[in-house]
Amino acid sequence: MLADTRQIDSFDRPEDASADSPLIVLQAWQGGVPTPAKPGAVALLQLLTSSEVADLSAITEVIRNDPGLTVQLLRFADKTLGKAPEIDLILGELIVLLGLEQLRAMAAEAVLLTPPDSYY
């Protein structure tokens, strides 16, 4: 069960997009650009979805704050639901529509961002 504890903003439509809008995320999703997620964000998503009761606002924030996870959620929803989500969808509504089992599956399949070889 997902529990909503906060108001969730919707994505901007492309014609309303500003420099800091999620337009880049939507273009990546629609264009098929590889979008790896941060390992810490995926681990936190796995933790938040590990019980039968989950905090919708916390899950939404984790996904919203990682562009890779946001794009992967949109692609996962497209694959799972059989249709592309609306551009002006509310991220929390999509998360509820998918449900915990699907979110767990998405987190398990997430493509992770790896640091460059020079990092080590």
Itemize the secondary structure elements and their pairings:
Layout (H helix, E strand, L loop, with lengths): L1 E2 L19 H9 L7 H10 L5 E2 H9 L2 H15 L9 H19 L11
Please describe what this structure looks like:
With 120 residues, the protein is mostly helical. The chain has one domain (22-113). It has 5 helices and 2 strands. The chain has helices at 23-31, 39-48, 56-64, 67-81, 91-109; strands at residues 2-3, 54-55. The chain has a two-stranded parallel ribbon with strand order 1-2.
What keywords describe this structure?
5 helices; 3% strand; two-stranded parallel sheet; mainly alpha; globular; 2 strands; 120 residues
Strand content: under 5%
Average pLDDT confidence is: 75
- Judged by helices, strands and strand pairing, the structural class is mainly alpha
* Strand order in the sheet with the most strands: 1-2
Give the uncertain stretches in residue-range form: 4-21
Q: Which range best describes the helical content: under 10%, 10-25%, 25-40%, 40-55%, 55-70% or over 70%? A: 40-55%
Evaluate the radius of gyration.
Answer: 14 Å
What would the principal axes of the Cα set say about the shape? Answer: globular
* Sheet with the most strands, sense and barrel status: 2 strands, parallel
Q: How many discrete structural domains?
A: 1
Q: Tell me the series of helices and strands, N- to C-terminal.
A: EHHEHHH
Number of helices: 5
Count all strands and give the number: 2
Q: Termini separation (Å)?
A: 41 Å
